[in-house]
Structure formats: structure tokens, C-alpha cells
């Protein structure tokens, strides 16, 4: 680990404390949604449209109602009165955005294959499934709008008739004399990239259980969700339930990757049905159902341009996006590209900047947040065009990056978009990554293979990325028209027995908050890490919270906890000073204890003070009994993690097969809380990024049927397909928060795709392949090589290929 600033002295923070949550997870003791069973519980099944676009003439549930075990069956119209206004979109990014009604169960039209059209409720899951097959829906199939650009053409089928267009919004950000600079620049590189549509694959599918208490009008909603707090607020509005009568519990959740950051039809349906029938209900998603009904990610066309000097110094960037929203706006669909909108200059200086994104409706599953959300797209565009620019001006990609880096800074520094980056030392990460990957050594091996005309060519790809996370100051979110705040909360209760309970507003689903939060609390309060219990994911236990997404939890919720501990220490100081008969100013916090200055034997520990606060026998005048504190933290800025990833590949030029020979990830997430968890986050993230670069893509047929509708044809890689990763860190503490932390949860997914694709393209340069798109499947690589050969663009033996001014990645749409 390369240290770029002195870390604070701590006992647990920064150490690899083993994950406290693992024993229950790996011994079958966890409480996932499908483990929940309530006496008298009914099963809910959702009938889905097989058509991408169809008018619904009628829905007949009468046969279903006659099936054994069936208790109820509903069409969309039957349930229309149960929701005031349909499912919400919390991020209307422009004033004139067109957002249609999104009914949990469609009424007039089905707008994607998988759109819910009817609901069946029965005594068992099997009875529900049998009855679902008898629901008779009279569909009138309509032409579908499937591809982004085609959906914008005149005469394209329109999804939402009331708008007369599939164009939902255009959001722009322009700084400086962009057009002028582009007109005058000696070098302009223009590229078109397509970021494939991806299907999230959490280990645990979604699921919902609702337990009503009809006499009290109360509901407990258990959901495999990332956002119990947001779900509670939105569902009480959608369903007209008094918010204080709705409790939301996220039990153990087996991954989400953004796909569980949503308010879904099935959640609204289950509460509505439990309310109607006054009985508990359960719905568990099947994997293939999830492929249709759970949000997808990405699906964005990016036109990226960079203006530069002759030797490759960047002057301005211009990015124009067309983003596929799918059939409806889900919770934050329109805002996903905006999460990347400020980052199309990456870690590089630029004088002017233009970003523009148009959101487009198509007859496909809605898109929304998927790990990285907007930032993988931005990073891909930036890091791919850096390689194109390097080729164009004849520089090594590492050298080109280095000469364009923003210089090292430790305090918030304004960049071209008007944002302030919290701190950055991009050269340190690059240096470390080049060293760990033996960059020079691989370049030599690459040249040897090129000289020899080897069938297997080596390629080296870089990605020196930045992301923006820790979302975010509430006022900034307001200016971006986001519907909620960016704060989070923590409560600490110091129990009389010396144990400590932390209730956090974050909602982990694989990120290890129980461990990290225990470390933060244990250090701050001077108690053993084992003595800290962390509670989360239940709105009755931790009512204040904004949940987990956007790699925000440690830099917002973790900091809230740190600050709550500060309040505990302040109160403990008052009590201890009284007990020790000194003034508060005579006490100092040393080695996890309150000590009278210069008198090491006159100390009070937090557990001791907690006991005194509980007995309340000898408290100073006006001090409330008990030792408990809550802090709600609204961060002053985002955090901006960064890093450098290097990927080395070997491409078989006869088969198109790519093998990763080496992968080095050097990330900078500020001060580390738990290096083991960080490594785990990077490993998982890089795996997902490699999957995106090499394997995964949602493919539809021309009628809008999802062809990659199961794990047998949507290619989620297993461990066997992935290389070993070398991970390391540089540490540039964030200036945003007192812990100096930045997020890490999405870094790998953001950094990896361009590193991999740059490597493949680097390998293929001498063969005349100018550009290649994701995923770099053997078929696509093979076709690119053959096309280049047919065009005769191969470089002479030993050459690396030259860049051109304008390229379109193969295989995009
Ligand atoms: N951490 C740390 N030191 C730092 C930064 C982070 O030790 N300087 C630790 C934190 O304490 C926390 C973990 O790393 O235990 C992740 O923290 P953070 O970066 O704040 O991210 P979040 O906890 O907010 O997690 C969200 C992020 C996102 S957006 C996606 S998507 C994602 C991810 O986390 N989905 C995941 N990681 C996942 N991991 C698993 N196993 N499953 C998912 O669904």
C-alpha cells in the first residue's frame, strides 16, 4: 500500500478485522426472504405479458378463480383503486421531462415482455403457478420500438401515446467555449461507443412477504431490498397508508448491485393484496422472471469527442448520450446518466466541457441503477478515447495519461465542470499499478510477439478512473432535481453492561457494514470490537436512514456513526469530570479512555460512564440519564475515489479467444476502514467489470423477446473464467469527511471494462482492427480481425497500428 498521507492512529480502523457477518451467512443461519413463513400465508403470482408491446383488450381471471387453492385473482383494472398514482420516479431530471403513469399492474397496454398484467393469489406456490396459466388476456400485439435510435425516428411506434414521442428528456451541461475550441484544435478524436444492456444477477432473487395487522391497519413488509427507508416513504404514498403504520424490514439480503434500489410492482402488489384479503402474502421471484421484471442496467450510446494539442494535451471534451430508459421510468432511471454527467473529463484537465443526454423509451425492461450507474459509462468513454488519442498522437497510453492528469491536491479543488474533487493523487496510483504489473516488461514481451508474428498477440490496457460517490449533499441533490436527501444517520446506545448497540440508516446487502461499523464505533469509544452490535435494515429499529447505494454508506453513514460517537464522548466527559471531580478541560481522550491530564491512574472508560449514566446516582446537574446519541450527517461534498487498473490479455488471432494474463487494480478510497472488505469489494467489482467487457449482454429478438432469458444464455462468468487479481491501494484521504474515507463499492466495475477492451484493442492494433465494442466475445474479435484483413488495414510486421480521427466500435447500435 502506498501512503500519500499520514493515517490517524487507530486500533481497529485500517485493520483486517474478519467479517463478523460471515459465520451466519456461511453456515445457513442467515434469514433470507424465502426463509420467512407466516401462518395463514398466501402465495402471490404475477402474470406477465409475453409481448413487448400490446394493447390489452381484456383480462379474464374467472378460470383462475375456479382452480384449486385459489383465493383471489385480479386484473390491472381490479387493482386500479389500490394505488393513488402508480409507481414513483424520484428523479425527474428536467422540468419538461415526460414521465408516464407506471401502474404496478398494466391496465391498457403492455409495454415490455414481462410487464405485469394480472395477479393470482393461492394457498400454495404450486397452486398459484397452475392458476396463472389459466388467466386469459386478450392482447392486440403492436409494433415495438426496440433500438434507441430507431425509437426516436418519425413514425416509430410510440409507447406512451399521451406524449406522441419516445423522447423523454434531454439534460445538458456546458462549460466554456467548447465549439470554438473544437473548431480550432489541431487534433480532434471522435468515437462512438455502445455500453451493452446488462442484467443484474444477485445471488438471491427478489422477494416480498407482507404481514398485515388488519385490526390496527398496520403492515410489516419484508423485502429483499437495498432501501427499506425509501421504500417505506414511497409505498405509504403509493398505497395511501399512514406512514407510521408501515414497517419495512430488509432481512439478510443476498446482493443487489443496484437492482434492489427500487420500488417495484411486486412490493406494491403484495401490500395491496394483503390489505384486501387481510392475510399475510408472499411472492418470491424466479430467476427467469427476474430477467424480465427486475431492472436492467446500461444500454447507452455515447458519442465522445476530445479536442487536443498536437502532442495530446486535452483542451475540451464533448459527450452526447442516448440512454435507453426501457418502457417506464423506475425509481431513479432518468438520473442514472446524470451520475456520470460530470465525469467525462475523468482525472484529466480540460478547459471546456459539454455533456448532453437524451433519455429514450423503448419496449424493453426499464433500466435503472446497476453497479456503477452512469460512472462505468463515463469511465468507459473517457478511458477508451484516451487510448484512441494516444494512438493518434503516437504516444504510449501511460505517458498520455500522465501528461494530462490533474496535479496532486489534498483539499477540495474545482475542476472544469464546476464540481470540487475532494482530493487526488492520480500519478501515485498509476505509478504503483505500472510497477505491480511490470508494464515495461509486458511491453517488451508484446513487441517480441509482434515481431515474431505470433498467432497469440499480447495487449495491455489501462484505466485511470475516477468516480463520484457518497451521494451527496442534500442541497446539491435538490439542484439536480433528485427527490430525497443525501444524509444518513446513526444511533449509538451504550448499554449499562458495557456493550454498545449501533443502529445505522444504511442497509448492507453484502458490503460488511456490521464489521466496518463495529470497527469505527470500537475505536471511537474505546471498546472491544466484539462488544459492538450493529442493527440495520428495519425501519422500526433504525427509523432514520437513506439506505445503501452509490458507494455512499461509509462516507455518509459511517461518518454519521463517527460523529455520534463524538457526541457520546462529549457527554461522557461531562459525567466523568463530575465523578473525578475535575473540570472537563482537565480531561483528555487517550488510548480509548478519558484521563485526567498528567494522571494516568485517574481514568474513566466509556463502559464505566455508561453504567453511571444508567444508575443516574451521581450525575451532574441537568444531565439526562443514559448514554445514547444520534447523529444525522449531511455531507458537504461527494467523495471522488480513483485508481489505476492494468489488464494484460492474450488474444488468439485465429479463434478470437481472449485470455486475461494479468490484472492489477490499484484503488484509492481514502483512508481504509477494513482492507479485507475493500479487497472483497474490488474483487467482486472487477469480476463484474470483466463480465461486462467480455461476456454479458442482454439480447432481444426483433419482436422484443428477451433471448438471453436465463443463465444458460446470459453469460455470467464463473470463477473459472476469471483471472487472479492483484490488488493494492494508494491512500489520499478525502477532504470531505473527518474519517477521510471515499467509497469503494463500485470502483472495480467502473474501472475494469475499459482496461479490458483497451487491452484487446491494443493486441489487435497491428492487425488493422481500429476499434472493437463490448462484450469482446471471440466471435466479435474474430470478425473484427477478418474485416480488417479484408480491408487490408494491417500494419507492417512489428507495428502497433495507427489511430484515426473518427471510429465507431464494432457491434454497436
Ligand atoms: N470500506 C472501507 N474503507 C473505505 C471505503 C469502504 O473499509 N475507505 C468498506 C465499507 O466500510 C463497507 C464497504 O467497504 O463495508 C463498502 O463501502 P462503500 O464504498 O461505502 O459502499 P456501500 O456500502 O454504500 O455499498 C454500495 C456499493 C454499491 S453502490 C453496489 S452496487 C454494490 C457494492 O456496494 N453492491 C454489492 N458492493 C456489493 N457487494 C456485495 N457483496 N453485494 C452487492 O450487491
Which descriptors apply to this entry?
813 residues; six-stranded mixed sheet; 20 helices; 28% helix
Describe the overall structure.
- The chain is of the alpha+beta class and 813 residues long.
- The strands form 7 sheets. Strands 4-6-2-13-10-11-12 form a 7-stranded mixed sheet, with helices on both faces. The protein has a 6-stranded mixed sheet with strand order 8-16-15-14-9-30, with helices on both faces.
- β10 (207-213) and β11 form a beta hairpin.
- α10 packs across α11 (397-404), α10 packs parallel to α19 and α15 (513-525) runs parallel beside α16 (553-580).
- The radius of gyration is 28 Å and the shape is globular.
- The two termini are 42 Å apart.
- Residues 3-8 have low confidence and may be disordered.
- The structure holds pterin cytosine dinucleotide.
- Pterin cytosine dinucleotide (MCN) binds at residues 202, 255-258, 371, 509-513, 516, 548-555, 558, 669-674, 677-678, 681, 684, 741-746.
- Pterin cytosine dinucleotide binds next to α15, α16 and α18.
Number of helices: 20
Oligomer: single chain
- Average pLDDT across residues? 95
The tally of beta strands, per DSSP, is 30
**How large is the share of residues in beta strands?**
15-25%
User: Main β-sheet, in a few words?
Assistant: 7 strands, mixed
pLDDT < 50 stretches: 3-8
Tertiary shape: globular
Q: Which molecules other than protein and nucleic acid are bound?
A: pterin cytosine dinucleotide
Distance between the termini: 42 Å
Q: Output the strand order for the largest sheet.
A: 4-6-2-13-10-11-12
Q: Structural class of the helix and strand makeup?
A: alpha+beta
Radius of gyration: 28 Å
Approximately how much helix is present in the residues?
25-40%
Amino acid at each position: 500500500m502506498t501512503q500519500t498521507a499520514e493515517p490517524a492512529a487507530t486500533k481497529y480502523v485500517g485493520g483486517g478485522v474478519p467479517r463478523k457477518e460471515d459465520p451466519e451467512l456461511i453456515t445457513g443461519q442467515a434469514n433470507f426472504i424465502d426463509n420467512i413463513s407466516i401462518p395463514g400465508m398466501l402465495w402471490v403470482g404475477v402474470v406477465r405479458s409475453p409481448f413487448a408491446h400490446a394493447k390489452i383488450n381484456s383480462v379474464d381471471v374467472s378460470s383462475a378463480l375456479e382452480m384449486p387453492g385459489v383465493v383471489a385473482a385480479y386484473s390491472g383494472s381490479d387493482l386500479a383503486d389500490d394505488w393513488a398514482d402508480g409507481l414513483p420516479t424520484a428523479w425527474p431530471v428536467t422540468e419538461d421531462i415526460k414521465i408516464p403513469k407506471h401502474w404496478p399492474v398494466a391496465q391498457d397496454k403492455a409495454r415490455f415482455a414481462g410487464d405485469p398484467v394480472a395477479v393470482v393469489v393461492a394457498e400454495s406456490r404450486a397452486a398459484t403457478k397452475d392458476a396463472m396459466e389459466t388467466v386469459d388476456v386478450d392482447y392486440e400485439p403492436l409494433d415495438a420500438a426496440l433500438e434507441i435510435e430507431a425509437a426516436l425516428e418519425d413514425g416509430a411506434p410510440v409507447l406512451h401515446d399521451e406524449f406522441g414521442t419516445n423522447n423523454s428528456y434531454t439534460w445538458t451541461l456546458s462549460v466554456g467555449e467548447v465549439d470554438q475550441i473544437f473548431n480550432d484544435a489541431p487534433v480532434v478524436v471522435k468515437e462512438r461507443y455502445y455500453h451493452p444492456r446488462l442484467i443484474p444477477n444477485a445471488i438471491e432473487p427478489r422477494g416480498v412477504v407482507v404481514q398485515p395487522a388488519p385490526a390496527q391497519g398496520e403492515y410489516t413488509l419484508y423485502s429483499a431490498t437495498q432501501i427499506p427507508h425509501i421504500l417505506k416513504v414511497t409505498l405509504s404514498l403509493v398505497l395511501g397508508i399512514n406512514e407510521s403504520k408501515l414497517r419495512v424490514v430488509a432481512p439478510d439480503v443476498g446482493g443487489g448491485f443496484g437492482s434492489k434500489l427500487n420500488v417495484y410492482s411486486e412490493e406494491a402488489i403484495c401490500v395491496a393484496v394483503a390489505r384486501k384479503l387481510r392475510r399475510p402474502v408472499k411472492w418470491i421471484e424466479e430467476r427467469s422472471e427476474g430477467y424480465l421484471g427486475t431492472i436492467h442496467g446500461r444500454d447507452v450510446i455515447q458519442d465522445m469527442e476530445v479536442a487536443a494539442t498536437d502532442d495530446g494535451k486535452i483542451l475540451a471534451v464533448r459527450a452526447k448520450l442516448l440512454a435507453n430508459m426501457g418502457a417506464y421510468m423506475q425509481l431513479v432511471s432518468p438520473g442514472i446518466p446524470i451520475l456520470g454527467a460530470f465525469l467525462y473529463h475523468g482525472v484529466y484537465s480540460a478547459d471546456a466541457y459539454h455533456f448532453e443526454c437524451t433519455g429514450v423509451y423503448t419496449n424493453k425492461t426499464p433500466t435503472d441503477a446497476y453497479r456503477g450507474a452512469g460512472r462505468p459509462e463515463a469511465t468507459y468513454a473517457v478511458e477508451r478515447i484516451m487510448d484512441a488519442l494516444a494512438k493518434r498522437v503516437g504516444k504510449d497510453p501511460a505517458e498520455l495519461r500522465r501528461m494530462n492528469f490533474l496535479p496532486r491536491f489534498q483539499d477540495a479543488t474545482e475542476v472544469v465542470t464546476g464540481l470540487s474533487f475532494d482530493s487526488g493523487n492520480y500519478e501515485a496510483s498509476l505509478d504503483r499499478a505500472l510497477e505491480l504489473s511490470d508494464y515495461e516488461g509486458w511491453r517488451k514481451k508484446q513487441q517480441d510477439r509482434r515481431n515474431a508474428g505470433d498467432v497469440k498477440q499480447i495487449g495491455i490496457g489501462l484505466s485511470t478512473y475516477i468516480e463520484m460517490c457518497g451521494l451527496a449533499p442534500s442541497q446539491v441533490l435538490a439542484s439536480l432535481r433528485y427527490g430525497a436527501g443525501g444524509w444518513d444517520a446513526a444511533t449509538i446506545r451504550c448499554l449499562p453492561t458495557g456493550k454498545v448497540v449501533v443502529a445505522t440508516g444504511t442497509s448492507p446487502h453484502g458490503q460488511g457494514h456490521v464489521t466496518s461499523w463495529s470497527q469505527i464505533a470500537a475505536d471511537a469509544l474505546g471498546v472491544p470490537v466484539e462488544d459492538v452490535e450493529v442493527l440495520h435494515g428495519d425501519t422500526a429499529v433504525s427509523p432514520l436512514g437513506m439506505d445503501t447505494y452509490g458507494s455512499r454508506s461509509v462516507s455518509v453513514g459511517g461518518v454519521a456513526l463517527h460523529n455520534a460517537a463524538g457526541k457520546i464522548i462529549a457527554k461522557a466527559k461531562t459525567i466523568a469530570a463530575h465523578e473525578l471531580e475535575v473540570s472537563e478541560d482537565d480531561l483528555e481522550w487517550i488510548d480509548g479512555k478519558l484521563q485526567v491530564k498528567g494522571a494516568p491512574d485517574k481514568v474513566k472508560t466509556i463502559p464505566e460512564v455508561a453504567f453511571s449514566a444508567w444508575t443516574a446516582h451521581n450525575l451532574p446537574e441537568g444531565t439526562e440519564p443514559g448514554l445514547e446519541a444520534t447523529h444525522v450527517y449531511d455531507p458537504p461534498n461527494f467523495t471522488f475515489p480513483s485508481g489505476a487498473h492494468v489488464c494484460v490479455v492474450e488474444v488468439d488471432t485465429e479463434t478470437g479467444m481472449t485470455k486475461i494474463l494479468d490484472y492489477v487494480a490499484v484503488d484509492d478510497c481514502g483512508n481504509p476502514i477494513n482492507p479485507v472488505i475493500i479487497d472483497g469489494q474490488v474483487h467482486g467489482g472487477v469480476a463484474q467489470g470483466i463480465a461486462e467487457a467480455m461476456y454479458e449482454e442482454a439480447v432481444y429478438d426483433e419482436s422484443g423477446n428477451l433471448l438471453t432469458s436465463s443463465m444458460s444464455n446470459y453469460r455470467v462468468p464463473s470463477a473459472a473464467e476469471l483471472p487472479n487479481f492483484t490488488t493494492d491501494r494508494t491512500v489520499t484521504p478525502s477532504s470531505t469527511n473527518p474519517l477521510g474515507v471515499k467509497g469503494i463499492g463500485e470502483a472495480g466495475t467502473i474501472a475494469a471494462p475499459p482496461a479490458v477492451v483497451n487491452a484487446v484493442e491494443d493486441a489487435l492494433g497491428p492487425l488493422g482492427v481500429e476499434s472493437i465494442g463490448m462484450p469482446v466475445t471471440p466471435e466479435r474479435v474474430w470478425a473484427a480481425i477478418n474485416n480488417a484483413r479484408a480491408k487490408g488495414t494491417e500494419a507492417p510486421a512489428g507495428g502497433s497500428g495507427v489511430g484515426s480521427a473518427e471510429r465507431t466500435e464494432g457491434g454497436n447500435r
